Amino acid sequence: MIALPVARDPPATRHISYSAISLYAACPLRYGFKYVMGLPEETIASSLVFGRAAHASFQHHFEQLLIADTAPSHDSLLEVFWDAWHEHDHLRVLFNKGEDENAIGHLADRVLRAFERSAIARPEGRIIAVEEELRGELVPGIPDLLARIDLLIETDDALHLLDLKTARTSWNEDNVARSTGQLLLYSELVKHMADGKPLRLGFAVLTKGKFPDLTVHPVMHDPKQVERTKRIVEKVWRSIECGHFFPSPSPMQCPTCPYREPCRNWMG
Question: CA 238, 34, 177, 219 torsion: positive or negative?
Fold first, then answer.
């Protein structure tokens, strides 16, 4: 049996993110490897690299609108995409079947052109924040929530909080429902900025098919669901505090997990 790598104890957790909570919910052991043991990741799924690189392009686009009220060129968006893609060159990228960097390049071109054609690329109202990092207390006794707000727009009648995502296929109601907690928690950090206006939440989902398309999916700001999501975060955090880390095998998650070898060697 190969021994698991030994990592130094990480510093005390001063904040927690929605992605960390989601990771624990998906696989407690993977959370433990990443956030508690601090084991290095040696592989990364191409879809994750693509999503991060696309987000970098989106960020560049909206920052240029915010600074100069001028959209950047398509070529500059592609340049930002590839710069962000190559930030992961130290990892082994796990491509899907029939996929390589050349295919990724063609896909990025199609996806970014679809984004540029969409209404979201020239939003109505005033851009307040782009990729803004916010943090605050959700529940007494647990670390602050650290959130990165993709896009915050103020119009005459509302404050709009949008999260941009790339997806293999179009989202349905189930996809939205599974992700709603993210925006509900983020809304708690931005509601003080609404200045009495209603807060509008939504996911802007850009598909990665042959003909990419961007669709905005509204999310209802329901105070009861906000409190329910807070309770979920609290329960997850209590489990983390108790050291409840165990594998949760999944045919969707395991093939691209960067901790497959440590997981196979885990004996509790």
Answer: positive
